[in-house]
Design brief:
The protein is an alpha+beta fold and about 210 residues long. Helix content is about 40%, strand content about 25%. The strands form two sheets. A five-stranded mixed β-sheet has the order 5-2-3-6-7, sandwiched between helices. Strands 1-4 form a two-stranded antiparallel sheet.
Protein backbone atom coordinates (compact mmCIF):
# COMPACT_ATOMS: atom_id res chain seq x y z
CA UNK A 1 0.00 0.00 0.00
CA UNK A 2 1.45 3.35 -1.02
CA UNK A 3 0.90 6.83 0.35
CA UNK A 4 0.51 9.46 -2.36
CA UNK A 5 -2.08 11.98 -1.10
CA UNK A 6 0.25 14.95 -1.36
CA UNK A 7 3.33 15.60 -3.40
CA UNK A 8 6.46 16.38 -1.36
CA UNK A 9 6.98 19.56 -3.38
CA UNK A 10 3.58 20.87 -2.32
CA UNK A 11 4.51 21.00 1.37
CA UNK A 12 8.25 21.59 1.42
CA UNK A 13 8.18 25.35 2.01
CA UNK A 14 5.72 25.52 4.91
CA UNK A 15 6.51 25.80 8.60
CA UNK A 16 4.41 22.82 9.75
CA UNK A 17 6.37 20.19 11.66
CA UNK A 18 5.25 16.92 10.05
CA UNK A 19 7.05 14.52 12.42
CA UNK A 20 5.60 16.27 15.49
CA UNK A 21 2.07 16.03 14.11
CA UNK A 22 2.52 12.40 13.11
CA UNK A 23 3.74 11.57 16.61
CA UNK A 24 0.81 13.43 18.18
CA UNK A 25 -1.75 11.64 15.99
CA UNK A 26 -0.18 8.29 16.84
CA UNK A 27 -0.50 9.12 20.54
CA UNK A 28 -4.16 10.06 20.07
CA UNK A 29 -4.88 6.79 18.29
CA UNK A 30 -3.28 4.88 21.14
CA UNK A 31 -5.14 6.99 23.72
CA UNK A 32 -8.57 6.16 22.24
CA UNK A 33 -7.78 2.45 22.22
CA UNK A 34 -6.90 2.02 18.55
CA UNK A 35 -3.97 0.23 16.98
CA UNK A 36 -1.98 2.71 14.85
CA UNK A 37 -0.35 -0.21 13.03
CA UNK A 38 -3.51 -1.81 11.68
CA UNK A 39 -4.05 -1.58 7.95
CA UNK A 40 -6.63 1.23 7.92
CA UNK A 41 -4.63 3.45 10.29
CA UNK A 42 -1.08 2.69 9.21
CA UNK A 43 -0.70 5.88 7.18
CA UNK A 44 -3.22 8.01 9.08
CA UNK A 45 -0.67 10.08 11.08
CA UNK A 46 1.14 10.96 7.86
CA UNK A 47 -2.10 11.81 6.06
CA UNK A 48 -3.25 14.04 8.91
CA UNK A 49 0.07 15.89 8.99
CA UNK A 50 -0.09 16.58 5.27
CA UNK A 51 -3.74 17.53 5.47
CA UNK A 52 -2.85 20.37 7.81
CA UNK A 53 -0.60 21.89 5.16
CA UNK A 54 -3.74 22.50 3.13
CA UNK A 55 -6.26 23.24 5.87
CA UNK A 56 -3.91 25.65 7.67
CA UNK A 57 -2.21 27.07 4.60
CA UNK A 58 -3.45 30.57 5.39
CA UNK A 59 -0.64 31.09 7.90
CA UNK A 60 1.96 31.03 5.12
CA UNK A 61 0.04 32.92 2.43
CA UNK A 62 1.71 36.18 1.41
CA UNK A 63 -0.84 38.99 1.09
CA UNK A 64 1.37 40.90 -1.36
CA UNK A 65 1.62 37.81 -3.57
CA UNK A 66 -2.13 37.34 -3.40
CA UNK A 67 -2.86 40.91 -4.53
CA UNK A 68 -0.01 40.79 -7.08
CA UNK A 69 -0.57 44.33 -8.31
CA UNK A 70 -4.27 43.81 -9.07
CA UNK A 71 -5.22 47.26 -7.79
CA UNK A 72 -6.68 49.50 -10.48
CA UNK A 73 -7.42 53.19 -10.60
CA UNK A 74 -11.06 53.45 -11.63
CA UNK A 75 -13.56 56.29 -11.37
CA UNK A 76 -16.39 54.30 -9.84
CA UNK A 77 -18.19 55.07 -6.61
CA UNK A 78 -21.05 52.55 -6.49
CA UNK A 79 -21.15 49.34 -4.50
CA UNK A 80 -18.97 46.41 -5.60
CA UNK A 81 -20.35 43.14 -4.25
CA UNK A 82 -18.96 39.60 -4.35
CA UNK A 83 -21.37 37.17 -2.72
CA UNK A 84 -21.55 33.48 -1.91
CA UNK A 85 -17.81 32.91 -1.55
CA UNK A 86 -17.49 29.37 -0.20
CA UNK A 87 -15.03 28.80 2.62
CA UNK A 88 -13.86 26.05 4.97
CA UNK A 89 -12.08 26.62 8.24
CA UNK A 90 -11.18 24.90 11.52
CA UNK A 91 -12.61 26.09 14.81
CA UNK A 92 -9.77 26.85 17.19
CA UNK A 93 -11.72 25.54 20.20
CA UNK A 94 -12.17 21.93 19.06
CA UNK A 95 -10.31 21.86 15.73
CA UNK A 96 -13.52 20.74 14.03
CA UNK A 97 -14.55 22.25 10.68
CA UNK A 98 -16.89 25.12 10.15
CA UNK A 99 -17.91 26.13 6.67
CA UNK A 100 -20.24 28.40 4.78
CA UNK A 101 -20.09 31.48 2.61
CA UNK A 102 -18.85 35.02 2.76
CA UNK A 103 -20.41 38.12 1.20
CA UNK A 104 -18.08 41.08 0.64
CA UNK A 105 -18.91 44.58 -0.56
CA UNK A 106 -17.03 47.84 -0.80
CA UNK A 107 -17.60 51.31 -2.20
CA UNK A 108 -14.44 52.40 -4.05
CA UNK A 109 -12.69 55.68 -3.54
CA UNK A 110 -10.55 55.66 -6.68
CA UNK A 111 -9.29 52.07 -6.52
CA UNK A 112 -10.84 48.68 -7.25
CA UNK A 113 -9.46 45.20 -6.65
CA UNK A 114 -9.30 42.38 -9.19
CA UNK A 115 -12.34 40.13 -8.81
CA UNK A 116 -10.43 36.91 -8.08
CA UNK A 117 -8.50 38.51 -5.22
CA UNK A 118 -11.44 38.79 -2.83
CA UNK A 119 -12.00 35.00 -2.60
CA UNK A 120 -8.23 34.60 -2.16
CA UNK A 121 -8.31 37.04 0.76
CA UNK A 122 -11.14 35.05 2.33
CA UNK A 123 -9.09 31.88 1.90
CA UNK A 124 -6.03 33.46 3.50
CA UNK A 125 -7.94 34.07 6.72
CA UNK A 126 -10.18 31.01 6.69
CA UNK A 127 -7.32 28.52 6.26
CA UNK A 128 -6.23 29.00 9.87
CA UNK A 129 -7.41 27.96 13.30
CA UNK A 130 -10.21 30.48 13.63
CA UNK A 131 -13.34 31.79 15.22
CA UNK A 132 -15.93 33.14 12.83
CA UNK A 133 -16.11 36.54 14.49
CA UNK A 134 -12.39 37.18 14.09
CA UNK A 135 -12.30 35.95 10.50
CA UNK A 136 -15.14 38.30 9.57
CA UNK A 137 -13.32 41.27 11.05
CA UNK A 138 -9.97 40.32 9.49
CA UNK A 139 -11.39 40.26 5.95
CA UNK A 140 -13.10 43.62 6.45
CA UNK A 141 -10.05 45.25 8.03
CA UNK A 142 -7.72 43.97 5.31
CA UNK A 143 -9.86 45.43 2.53
CA UNK A 144 -10.28 48.70 4.41
CA UNK A 145 -6.53 49.10 4.84
CA UNK A 146 -5.72 47.96 1.30
CA UNK A 147 -8.27 49.96 -0.70
CA UNK A 148 -9.00 52.94 1.58
CA UNK A 149 -12.58 52.78 0.24
CA UNK A 150 -15.62 54.78 1.26
CA UNK A 151 -16.85 51.68 3.05
CA UNK A 152 -16.48 47.92 3.45
CA UNK A 153 -19.02 45.31 4.54
CA UNK A 154 -18.51 41.62 5.22
CA UNK A 155 -21.13 39.06 6.25
CA UNK A 156 -20.25 35.44 7.02
CA UNK A 157 -22.81 32.64 7.32
CA UNK A 158 -21.53 29.30 8.59
CA UNK A 159 -22.34 25.90 10.03
CA UNK A 160 -20.14 24.65 12.86
CA UNK A 161 -19.55 20.95 13.33
CA UNK A 162 -18.56 21.58 16.95
CA UNK A 163 -22.22 22.37 17.67
CA UNK A 164 -23.70 19.93 15.13
CA UNK A 165 -21.74 16.78 16.05
CA UNK A 166 -21.18 17.40 19.76
CA UNK A 167 -22.47 19.61 22.57
CA UNK A 168 -25.97 20.85 21.77
CA UNK A 169 -26.12 18.72 18.57
CA UNK A 170 -28.29 21.20 16.67
CA UNK A 171 -27.94 20.25 13.02
CA UNK A 172 -29.83 23.22 11.59
CA UNK A 173 -28.14 25.95 13.64
CA UNK A 174 -26.39 28.61 11.58
CA UNK A 175 -24.19 31.48 12.70
CA UNK A 176 -24.09 34.88 10.99
CA UNK A 177 -21.48 37.53 11.72
CA UNK A 178 -20.86 40.92 10.15
CA UNK A 179 -18.26 43.67 10.07
CA UNK A 180 -18.94 47.13 8.67
CA UNK A 181 -16.67 50.09 8.02
CA UNK A 182 -17.25 53.59 6.70
CA UNK A 183 -20.42 54.18 4.68
CA UNK A 184 -21.86 50.77 5.53
CA UNK A 185 -21.63 51.51 9.23
CA UNK A 186 -22.67 55.16 9.09
CA UNK A 187 -25.41 55.06 6.44
CA UNK A 188 -28.48 52.92 7.11
CA UNK A 189 -29.64 53.00 3.47
CA UNK A 190 -26.26 51.77 2.22
CA UNK A 191 -26.22 48.98 4.77
CA UNK A 192 -29.77 47.95 3.89
CA UNK A 193 -28.93 47.89 0.17
CA UNK A 194 -26.05 45.53 0.88
CA UNK A 195 -28.13 43.24 3.09
CA UNK A 196 -30.96 43.17 0.55
CA UNK A 197 -28.54 42.24 -2.23
CA UNK A 198 -27.02 39.30 -0.35
CA UNK A 199 -30.40 37.93 0.72
CA UNK A 200 -31.92 38.10 -2.76
CA UNK A 201 -31.96 34.66 -4.32
CA UNK A 202 -29.70 33.08 -1.74
CA UNK A 203 -30.11 29.35 -1.16
CA UNK A 204 -29.93 27.62 2.25
CA UNK A 205 -26.55 26.46 3.44
CA UNK A 206 -26.12 22.73 3.01
CA UNK A 207 -23.57 20.11 3.93
Amino acid sequence: MEFDDVNENDVADTAIDNPAIENAVTQILNAVGEDPQREGLQFTPRRVARMYHELLGGYTMDSDAIINGALFNVKYDEMVLVRDIEFYSLCEHHMLPFMGRVHVAYIPDGKVLGLSKIPRIVEMYSRRLQVQERMTRQVADFLRDLLKPQGVAVVVEAMHLCSMMRGVKKHDARMTTSAMHGAFRANLATRQEFLANISRGSSPLQI
